[in-house]
Specification:
The chain is an all-alpha fold. Helices cover 81% and strands 0% of the residues. The chain is elongated and about 45 Å long. The chain crosses the membrane at residues 12-31, 43-63.
Length: 64
């Protein structure tokens, strides 16, 4: 399993970056519209964006 992550770390980081951007966009949209269950949706998207950011910021990505 670790060989898979070592060989495809660039693609995994790209997928996490896309999830981070989409979560941030959805967080902002939910906050502005304030529709049904907007607080729960903001919590979910905010936590997923935070988790993605922390992964990208603190997990070392070895590109060699």
């Amino acid at each position: 399993m670790t060989v898979f992550f070592e060989q495809n770390i660039q693609y995994i980081a790209l997928i996490i970056l896309v999830i981070f951007v989409v979560s941030g966009f959805n967080f902002r949209r939910n906050w502005q519209r304030k529709g049904d269950n907007w607080q729960r949706n903001c919590w979910f998207t905010g936590l997923s964006a935070t988790a993605c950011f922390l992964f990208l910021a603190f997990v070392p990505i070895n590109l060699t």
